[in-house]
Amino acid sequence: MAAAVGDHDALLAAAAEHRPDLVVTDIRMPPGFTDEGLRAAVALRRDRPELAVVALSQYVEQSYASELLDSGDGRRVGYLLKDRVVDVADFAATLRQVVDGGTVVDPQVVRQLLRRRRDPLSRLSDREREVLALIAEGHSNGAIARRLFVSEAAVGKHIGNILAKLDLPPDDDVNRRVLAVLAYLRGAGS
What are the residue ranges spanned by the domains of the chain? Predict the structure, then answer.
């Protein structure tokens, strides 16, 4: 039995209904296109530690990547970068390896996880660093957009990427922009 789903809630519901042997999920899923797929994978493994899960991503989402890789007994997990999945036979072999109890982590993911533990700002693109510096100076999204000659939507997207890359998931009890600025100031001081 196979199921294709479109969002976080549908993934959780399909996994509960069908009890699959393997879940392959994109990290970013509707509705927010941030880390919904990875959060769903972590939740599924929390409920069923033996469930094989392979997460696909454009880049490493450290906030949940470590939790996913540590879930269960650390076996039956895969974390692959989409742009490096190019051969169908290799991908199918990777899926079989994970289902059979293996752990498959793209070497680039390993390098990024190790590097990010040293400097959280190293994950940011030059433009994201520029946006974060302007946030640290106290500028609004509109002011940043005018300074960088981009739309406010583009600034919002950069901010979303910054928050995700700095491992600042949504939380009603904290201001993530302030936490991002604190990370920036710590990084600028070193």
Answer: 8-117, 120-189
